[in-house]
Write a structure and sequence with these properties.
This is Beta-lactamase/transpeptidase-like protein. The chain is of the alpha+beta class and 263 residues long. 38% of the residues lie in helices and 11% in strands.
């Protein structure tokens, strides 16, 4: 199943209804090129078709409940909306979403707490298992940290050029250097792999660290070499706030400083 679907579909972001997803034409044949888009929304349709479950039910049964997570869901919690959302004056703000979406999306829409999300990251860091609950096979976790771009030289070169340009917008160290990344990158299963040329970030992030970010400035990394994972969340749009990026950079540098002293 992985060879025919997950590895052929790819990356990220928000979709809409099932019908609108399937009506969007392909930019490239599956598995032929890296491109940021609605690929995770296609994965939603695959998961729902194979499992026979809506995405919400599948995630609850196979990830959230086994890990003891009760506050991550696609269904809004009315008691939490005031904490997470503030209307912006003099904008085209459409207001908070208070009801369930028609189509749950692999690219966006889950709501929850960093305290719960870090349990998912910790399970991946520990090889797919946490507190006796296994959510992924060890082999699947290993596959997450391997390149899934084309290995054909010319195709790979084009994909890496596009990925590197896009990744420069997701990295606070590149953000302050005009998009220039500290080292080379690649694409794993579920996120960006940094430092693939063997170079560490100067503050200590090890090569082959898996990371990604969300539109509201929600960031996470999994560094298996340093046995470190964390998530840094804000709830601010549009994406690209220098203040948030500066804070993220400072938080990560302090975490690695503390981890180094602990070792």
């Amino acid at each position: 199943m992985v060879d025919m679907t997950v590895s052929k579909v790819g990356t990220n972001v928000a979709g809409s209804t099932r019908e609108s997803i399937t009506e969007i034409p392909l930019m490239y044949q599956p598995g032929k090129h890296y491109h940021y888009g609605i690929n995770n929304d296609w994965l939603t349709l695959i998961v729902e078709e194979v499992s026979g479950l809506p995405l919400e039910a599948y995630l609850q049964q196979n990830i959230f409940q086994p890990l003891g997570i009760a506050d991550i869901s696609f269904i809004p919690n009315p008691s939490k909306i005031d904490m997470a959302y503030r209307p912006a004056p003099h904008t085209f703000d459409r207001g908070a979403t208070t009801g369930p979406e028609k189509q749950h999306s692999g690219g966006s829409g889950l709501q929850g707490s960093p305290k719960s999300f870090i349990r998912i990251l910790q399970a991946i860091l520990d090889g797919g298992e946490l507190d006796g609950a296994r959510i992924l096979k060890k082999e699947t976790v290993e596959d997450m940290f391997r390149s899934h771009l084309s290995q054909e030289p010319e195709d790979r070169k084009r994909q890496l050029e596009e990925l590197t340009e896009f990744a420069g917008e997701q990295d606070p160290w590149a953000f302050e250097r005009g998009g220039m990344l500290p080292g080379s990158v690649d694409w794993g299963l579920g996120g960006l792999l940094t430092g693939l040329d063997g170079k560490s970030y100067s503050h200590g992030r090890a090569p082959n660290t898996l990371c990604w970010s969300g539109f509201g400035h929600s960031f996470w990394i999994i560094d298996r070499e340093k046995d470190l994972t964390y998530c840094f969340w804000s709830n601010l749009i549009p994406y690209g706030s220098k203040a948030v990026f500066d804070c993220w950079r400072e938080v990560e540098e302090l975490l690695y400083l503390g981890a180094g002293k602990r070792d």
